Amino acid sequence: MEISVGRSVFDSAYEENTAPWVIGEPQPAIVELEKAGGIGGAVLDPGCGAGEHTILLTRLGYDVLGVDFSRPAIERARANAAEQNVDARFEFADALRLTGGPFDTVVDSALFHVFGPEERAKYVRSLHGVCRPGATVHVLALSDAEPGFGPRIPDAVIRDAFAVEGWRLAEIRPTTYRGVARGEHAEVFGVDDGALIDVPAWLATATRL
Hints:
This protein has 209 residues and is an alpha/beta fold. It has helices spanning 7-15, 28-35, 52-59, 71-83, 117-130, 155-162, 184-189, and strands at residues 42-46, 63-68, 89-92, 103-109, 131-142, 167-181, 195-208. Strands 3-2-1-4-5-7-6 form a 7-stranded mixed sheet, with helices on both faces. Helix 1 (7-15) runs parallel beside helix 4 (71-83).
């Protein structure tokens, strides 16, 4: 399975306001994860996009940093935080070459699934380098179950990525991911163009050893 989405795709999506993953609010699965006590300490939000999760967690009192390799994304995230009067931190950074930390929790919302095999391995190594021992990494990724759209993956891809030295995969469970259905996707789902839909996803939790 070769999946790799280039920077230009993300830049254009933010500049043209066509990103189906920008829903104007945090993902329900991440909101529930926080309510269940799954987040603590210093938090990293890699591939933060428009900043919904960094803003949410900052507002709730967490020490959180959002990073993205798309400058338009970071600009939009900072603007969103300013509009909401939240002093959230955002930095331009490549998730495959992370620095800083150490972090206690990583909240990956729809980043992992855009990587191909080599990039996934680099990403997992990159996370290991900035997480302290015992840190928790949560991965919310689109599932290959139907119906769906986007770069979808089977749970085996997540299992394989974290089946390496330095990690213990604690859990993978099915959940949903909320996105915007446009064009042909709206037709497939039988909804109005621009409607929000919930599609199958995985929520995985791994521990940094």
